Amino acid sequence: MTAPGRAGLDAILGDPDHALLAFDYDGVLAPIVDDPENAPPHPGAVAALARLAPRVGTVVIITGRPAEVVVAYGQFADIPALSRLVIFGHYGRERWDAESGQVHTPPTPDSVAAAAAELPDLLTRLGAPAETWIEHKGGSVAVHTRRCPDPAATLAMLSSPIADCAARHGLVVEPGRLVLELRPPGVDKGQTLSAFARERGARSVCYIGDDLGDLKAFDAVESLRDEGIAGLKVGSGSVEAAEVARRADLVVDGPAGVVDFLDTIADTLFASASSME
Predict the structure, then answer these.
(1) Which residue, 29, 153, 262, 265, has fewest beta-carbon neighbours within 10 Å?
(2) Helix/strand/coil for 140
(3) Which CATH code fits 110-183?
C-alpha cells in the first residue's frame, strides 16, 4: 500500500542473499489461542519458513515468549532447512541459534518474581473475574483476560493498577492483545531488530507483526530506511490491534495470510533462480 513498502519488497526479491525476514510468533506464525501454554504453529507455517529460509540471507523470530518455548512449539531444532534460524526470546533478552542449539539467557531480575507474587492478591482485591489468568514466563509475567466474560472491559479495569504494580518493581508493561505483560525495561523488538540487521549486514528488512509490541519493530524498519536499508512492514491482520494494520505497508489475513505471503515469496525466488540456470 506504500511506495517504501514496494521498494522494500523489490529489494528482498532482487537481492535475497542480503535480506533479513523477521517474525513475531503469536498471531503471526501461530494463531492467538485462549491457552497460551498450548500454541503450536499454524499449519503450514513451519513448512513455509523451511521453504523460504534457504533462499534468503537471514530468518529470525522475535517474540515475547521464552526462546526455548518457541523452539519446542515449532520443533525448529529438528529442521535442516532452518539450520541458520535465530530466535530472540523475551523481546531480545534471550537468543537461541540453531547452529549451536544453545540459548543465551541473562539472569532473571528478582523484580519479576516479586511482581508475580503480588499479582494474585491484587487481582482478588480488584474483583477480577476468576477467568483472569497469570502466565509465568520466566523473564516476565503476564496477565491474560481473553477467557473472561468481557475480556476488553477486564483489561481496561486492570490496566492502571497493573501499571502501578510494574512501576513499584521497576518493570514496564507491554500491552498486547487482551494481555498485560510485566517485564524488565531496556530492550524491545525494535532495538533487537535494528541491532541484528546491522550484525548481519542486511540490505533489506521485512518485519511481520500483529500486536502493539510489534510497533517498535515497525519504528525500527522506518529508521533503517533512513539509513539506506530497504524495509517492508507487514501486519498480520486483527481487529484487536488496528494500529498495526494502520502502520503496515501490507496487511495479510492473520497467520494463514502470513503463510500465503511466505509461499509467494519463496515461489518467486525459486522461479527467478530457475530462470537464471
Answers:
(1) 153
(2) coil
(3) 3.30.70.1020
C-alpha cell at 232: 517492508
Q: Is 35 exposed, middle or buried (0-12, 13-18, 19+ CB in 10 A)?
A: exposed
Position 43 scores a pLDDT of 94
Tell me the pLDDT tens digit for each residue of 15-24. 999 999 999 9
In this predicted structure, the answer to whether residue 108 has a pLDDT above a threshold of 90 is no
Residues 6+ apart with CB under 8 A from 45: 29, 30, 74, 255, 258, 259, 262
AA letter at 13: L
Dihedral sign (CA 216, 219, 224, 227): negative
CATH code for the part of the protein at 3-106+186-276: 3.40.50.1000
Q: What is the pLDDT of residues 184-215, one digit of tens each?
A: 998 899 999 999 999 999 999 999 999 999 99
Extract the C-alpha cell encoding 252. 495479510
Structural element, H or E, at residue 236: strand 230-236
Q: Are 67 and 76 in contact (CB under 8 A)?
A: no
* DSSP character string of 13-26: HH-GGGEEEEE-SB
User: 255: which residues sit within 8 A by CB, 6+ positions away?
Assistant: 27, 28, 29, 30, 31, 41, 42, 45, 236
What the block records as the C-alpha cell of 94 is 534471550
Would you list the domain boundaries of the chain? 3-106+186-276, 110-183
pLDDT tens string 32-63: 988 878 889 999 999 999 999 999 999 999 99
State the pLDDT at residue 235. Answer: 97
**Rounded Cα–Cα distance for residues 109 and 171 (Å):** 10
